[in-house]
Structure formats: structure tokens, C-alpha cells
């Protein structure tokens, strides 16, 4: 097959690879594998380098497909806050009266003064139709008066459990925070049709495959269509194989359920149980969101944010967090707990230390993002059997904001501590949190090696830089291990023949150029899944 980079440190390169029944049966020279070929053998000689299929261990397919066609008001698309308002005005002008104006990826932390989009500002953009803007973190949304009214949210509305309807002097500002409140705001939106869902899922997963990804974890299943989402994925795959294998994490808070036990019962009644499914779509985890967004100042910290008296808050009481964790553990799920601030890590870690020792099995529980941690917490995570998955491009995109305006230099230096996680004996992965950032594992791995900031080119916490091999393990073997896919992430006899054909070998190339390495094709079980 030409040049092959196996990702196996014991046998890093090969000239040829033999595949049978979807698995690798041989690796070596052409002469060594000659006996494995016959008259019916299909030979491939791709023009590029064959590497293990990359693993995306935390991304959001469902909420992302909901916003696929929304107006992009990200900092990249709108470098000034005036550009955001102009883009919203243009979107409103192009929208029929009475129809929603919808925009995504707004992030006030990247603008001077961290300006918010209040209802008063958005009412001036559009007063005759609902307007909703989703924050890049997906933890916040911004609404005009018409959108609040359409959702039945009034100044008298009580705060939803785990969410926030921001009010000043008893009046709604139009800013809502965390999933329960955001879901209230978005509830009146027309749900996409079955055809739109199918198109959107394939579009998103094809984008992933175009970056060399062959397996991914959908990090919060149930947010758009409830427990039916997993069945939809199976139906789509049955109609035509998906371009990427999907592992699902079932959300532990669903509308209409008063307790985590009721949510667990709904998933079970739908036939979604731990490790149910097949080789293309499998249910693996129980998703819990312990706090909010650091750049949105709702992540939970031990010390206040710069210029504030609050360090954010937890989304659960201590008793509530244990209840929701038990609901997942009792059914045998891997726990996947969103923890952004160091207080959220401590909050979840104390609960894990209490609950996990009595449980059996190698479930490989995870803390998602684990954005700001202490040495003690990483050591205790290793002892508790919890591994972190870092949103590595937090450093690239938001590192300067964390350092200068949100957390301060000392805490920013504790952001996404991949090197420290390795030193603590952990098996960390790195992820995109799509669509918080784009799926581009090799670029995220570059950030792990360089820790260079997009804003000013400086290096954040140079002692947290990792070796190229460690960064690549975090998007291959370690990420595969975290999603219970031990037969992927490396090319070795007995492993699945999931691989990508790329422009250059990242194991030997300068990490500076990893973001420019393009994926030409991907294969699942040795069968073409994507061609660029």
C-alpha cells in the first residue's frame, strides 16, 4: 500500500498492510505480505501516507446540525462587535416577517469589554420577529423580546433548575444560561424534518472524515430529539453506512423528567443501554454537566473571576450531583462529567472518590475539558480511575483572554494541562467540542505541542507543552481507549482497518505544519468511507 505510519511506537512504519474481514492481518514489506494475497485480492496504492484513523472523543452532532444554516457571528467572521450587529441586521433583512432570525458562535470574551447582546440591543436589530443568538460555548443564548415571548419566558418566569434567566431589577435581560434555560428558549423553533436531520448528520460527519477522523463520541445525545436520537443514527447507518463510527453519550437531563432516575428509565425503555448497538453506532456513556463556560464566566472556580466577586457556580447541589452520578453508575454507564473550573473539578472529584470505589468494571470514567486543574486534582483523578479529555484549542483561541481579562496569569497557566496529566500517570485525550471549535485533530495536537496563542503568538505555560508523540497519542490511542475502542487508533495486526490517507506523516513531520496536513480518503474496516 505504499508508505504507512502505524502509530505503533514498536513498529512505526510499514511498506504494506493486509486486511481481511475488516481487520489488519499483516503489516510489513511487500515481500513479507505476498503470501496473504490471492486472485481475489483488492490492491490499493493511495497517493499519500496511510495513518491510523483519528479519534474525536468529544463533539456535538445534534446541536450542531440544528445550527448548520444559522448566521455565523463568530469572532473570525465578525472581528468587531459592530460587525456582529451588522451581520444580524443583514440576516434580519433577509428573513421573512414572523420567522426566526438565528445566529451562532458569538463570543463576547474575544471583544474588548466583553459586550453582551442584550434584548434591548437585539430589539433594535429586529423588533417584529424572534431573534436568537447562540454563544460559541453553547452554554448561553441571547434573545430579543419577541423570542422570549415566543418561548413563554416572562419577567415572572421562575429560574429553571440548573439554568439561568438573567434579570436586572426583575426584568429579563435576554441572556439565558445553561442547557435547561437555553432549551426553554429554543423549544418553539421548528424541528428539522427527517430528511434535514439525515442531510445534516451526514454533512457534519463528512466534515469530520475530511479531517481524517474515523471514530467520534457524540457528547450529549438526546438534546434535540430526545431518546429517539440513537435509533435515528442506527436507521441512517442502515440506509447507507455513516462516514464515521459514532459512540454516544446519553444526556442525563431531559425535558419532562423530574429526576435523573426518570431520565435513566427513559433511555432504558428506548433500548439504549450501556454498550448496546453495533460496530458503527454504539451507546457508551452517561453525560453530566457540572458547571458552565469559563469564557462565559459560568465555569465554577475556587477563586473569583478577574474584576468580579463570584467564581461562577455549580449546576448541581452536592446531593444532586451524587444522585445523577448514581443513576448512570447503577445502569453500568461510563460517566462523562463536564468540569470546566477548578472548583467544578473538585466538586466532581469528591463525588467520584466517594462513589467509584464501590463499583466494579473498567468503565474509564472521564472528566470533560478539566480546563483548570491543580496538581493534587490530577493525582487524585488517576487514583480514582478518571481520565481527562481536554479542549486543547481553549489555549489557542481563548488563552490570551483567560490570561488578561478572565482568570489572570497564574490560573491561565493551569489551562489544559496535558503535560501534567501525563506526569500524573493519566491517559488524556484532546477534543474539539465541535462546534465550539472546528474538528481538526492535527491542529489541536499542534496546540498541545506549541501552546501558542492565536491572539498574540505568545506561548502559554511552556512547561505544559508535550512531545509530538504524546500529542498524537491523545488523538489516536488514548482517545480510542477513552471511548472503549481498543481495536482502533493504531495500525497493528488484529486491529480494525480504520485508517486515513493524508499528505504527510505527522509522526515525522514538523508539528508546525500539522494543521496543513490534508486528508484525502478515510477507510472503515478497510472499505472506503470518505474521498475528498
What would your notes on this structure say?
By secondary structure, the protein is an alpha/beta fold. The chain folds into 2 domains: 55-62 and 193-489, TIM Barrel; 69-186, Diaminopimelate Epimerase, Chain A, domain 1, CATH 3.10.310. The protein is built from 18 helices and 22 strands. It has an 8-stranded parallel sheet with strand order 6-13-14-15-16-17-18-19. It has a 6-stranded mixed sheet with strand order 2-1-5-20-21-22, with no helix packed on it. Helix 11 packs parallel to helix 12 (375-384). The longest helix has 16 residues, at 194-209. The chain is globular. The model has no long low-confidence stretch (mean pLDDT 94).
Key words describing this protein structure:
TIM Barrel, six-stranded mixed sheet, 31% helix, Diaminopimelate Epimerase, Chain A, domain 1, 532 residues, globular, 18 helices, alpha/beta
Strand content: 15-25%
The count of β-strands is 22
The domain count comes to 2
CATH architecture of the largest domain: Alpha-Beta Barrel
User: Distance between the terminal alpha carbons, to the nearest Å?
Assistant: 19 Å
Low-confidence sequence ranges: none
State the CATH superfamily name of the largest domain.
Answer: Metal-dependent hydrolases
* Global Rg: 23 Å
What class do helices, strands and sheet pairing give? Answer: alpha/beta
Whole-number mean pLDDT: 94
- Taken from the alpha-carbon principal axes, the silhouette is globular
Amino acid at each position: 500500500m505504499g508508505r504507512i505510519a502505524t502509530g505503533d511506537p514498536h513498529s512505526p512504519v510499514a511498506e504494506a498492510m493486509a486486511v481481511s474481514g475488516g481487520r489488519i492481518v499483516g503489516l510489513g514489506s511487500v515481500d513479507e505480505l505476498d503470501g496473504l494475497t490471492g486472485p481475489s485480492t483488492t490492491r490499493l496504492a493511495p497517493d499519500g501516507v496511510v495513518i491510523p484513523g483519528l479519534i474525536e472523543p468529544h463533539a456535538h452532532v445534534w446541536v450542531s446540525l440544528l445550527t448548520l444554516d444559522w448566521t455565523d457571528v463568530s469572532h473570525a467572521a465578525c472581528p468587531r462587535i459592530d460587525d456582529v450587529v451588522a451581520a444580524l441586521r443583514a440576516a434580519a433583512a433577509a428573513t421573512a416577517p414572523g420567522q426566526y432570525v438565528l445566529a451562532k458562535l458569538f463570543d463576547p470574551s474575544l471583544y474588548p469589554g466583553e459586550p453582551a447582546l442584550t434584548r434591548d440591543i437585539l430589539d433594535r436589530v429586529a423588533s417584529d420577529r424572534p431573534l436568537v443568538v447562540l454563544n460559541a460555548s453553547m452554554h448561553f443564548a441571547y434573545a430579543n423580546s419577541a423570542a422570549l415571548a415566543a418561548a413563554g419566558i416572562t419577567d415572572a418566569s421562575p429560574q429553571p433548575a440548573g439554568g439561568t434567566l438573567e434579570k436586572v431589577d426583575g426584568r429579563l435581560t435576554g441572556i439565558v444560561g445553561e442547557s435547561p434555560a437555553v432549551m426553554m428558549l429554543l423549544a418553539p423553533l421548528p424541528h428539522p424534518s427527517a430528511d434535514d436531520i439525515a442531510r445534516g448528520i451526514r454533512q457534519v460527519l463528512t466534515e469530520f472524515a475530511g479531517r481524517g477522523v474515523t471514530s467520534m463520541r457524540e457528547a450529549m445525545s438526546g438534546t434535540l430529539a430526545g431518546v429517539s436520537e440513537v435509533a435515528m443514527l442506527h436507521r441512517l447507518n442502515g440506509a447507507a453506512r455513516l462516514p464515521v463510527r459514532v459512540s454516544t453519550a446519553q444526556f442525563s437531563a431531559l425535558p419532562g423528567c423530574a429526576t435523573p432516575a426518570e431520565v435513566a428509565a427513559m433511555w432504558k425503555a428506548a433500548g439504549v443501554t450501556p454498550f448496546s448497538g453495533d460496530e458503527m453506532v454504539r451507546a457508551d456513556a452517561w453525560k453530566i454537566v457540572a458547571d458552565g463556560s469559563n469564557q462565559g464566566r459560568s465555569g465554577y472556580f475556587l477563586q473569583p473571576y478577574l474584576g468580579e466577586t463570584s467564581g461562577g457556580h455549580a449546576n448541581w447541589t452536592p446531593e444532586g450531583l451524587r444522585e445523577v452520578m448514581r443513576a448512570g453508575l447503577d445502569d453500568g454507564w461510563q460517566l462523562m462529567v463536564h468540569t470546566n473550573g477548578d472548583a467544578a473539578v473538585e466538586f466532581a472529584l469528591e463525588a467520584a472518590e466517594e462513589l467509584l470505589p464501590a463499583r466494579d468494571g473498567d468503565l474509564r470514567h472521564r472528566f470533560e475539558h478539566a480546563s483548570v486543574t491543580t496538581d493534587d486534582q490530577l493525582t487524585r483523578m488517576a487514583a480514582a480511575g478518571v481520565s481527562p479529555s481536554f479542549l486543547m484549542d481553549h489555549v489557542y483561541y481563548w488563552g490570551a483572554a483567560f490570561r488578561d481579562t478572565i482568570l489572570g496569569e497564574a490560573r491561565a497557566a493551569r489551562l489544559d494541562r496535558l503535560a501534567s496529566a501525563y506526569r500524573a500517570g493519566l491517559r488524556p485525550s484532546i477534543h474539539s467540542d465541535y462546534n465550539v471549535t472546528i474538528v481538526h485533530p492535527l491542529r489541536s495536537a499542534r496546540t498541545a505541542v506549541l501552546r501558542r496563542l492565536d491572539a498574540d503568538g505568545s506561548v502559554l505555560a511552556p512547561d505544559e507543552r508535550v512531545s509530538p508523540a504524546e500529542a498524537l497519542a491523545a488523538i489516536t490511542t488514548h482517545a480510542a481507549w477513552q471511548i472503549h475502542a481498543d481495536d482502533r487508533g493504531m495500525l497493528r495486526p488484529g486491529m480494525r482497518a480504520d485508517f486515513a490517507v493524508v499528505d504527510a506523516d505527522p509522526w515525522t513531520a514538523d508539528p508546525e505544519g500539522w494543521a496543513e496536513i490534508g486528508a484525502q480518503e478515510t477507510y472503515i474496516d478497510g472499505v472506503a468511507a470518505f474521498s475528498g
